[in-house]
Write the structure tokens for this entry.
Amino acid sequence: MIKVVIADDHPIVRAGLKQILAEATDIMVAGEAGNGHELLEKVRRTPFDLVLLDLKMPGMDGLDILKQLKIELPKLPVMILTIYPEANYAMRILRLGASGYLTKESAPQELISAIRKIHAGGKYISPELAEKIAFALDGDIDKLPHERLSDREYQVLCAIASGQTVSEIAESIHLSVKTVSTYRTRILEKMGMKTNADLTHYAVQNRLVE
């Protein structure tokens, strides 16, 4: 039996995932978490076979949760289930140690197959995303301005483009307002832009945010 813990801040999403996974006789939802701190507490206390993690979480961002999981439990497979279909985001996540990356638009059976493959020691991305990543590795996406950003800068860019203020971003990723402002300045410089509106327009055009 594959024991899965679901980390998503929306109870209705967790309920839907539990219903999907209940159809598989070899998969059991053994835990749930509504935020990153709750997830970390659960995995420290209870052995799980796989973490199903949403990237957009309150309090502690999905990137930071993944990094912490890989530090504390490097052998615990983490599968990302997200709204972001962007290949560049997927590559960053996989480099950080995730075992799989699937969008929430995927079919239920694909989720079950992905969990089984990862539990068996494999990696999983959808065929569509694999094609996008292949083009990225050829250099098409690597040439885009946002590819030059660090993981933290990319995280701040997406937050700005989602409409968050510097103060809100600082609170959500546990940094000072001054530090986030510095990241914003670096992002604008690296991308050759001047305003938050420029960043937002770019992010929407390149599907970095929903």
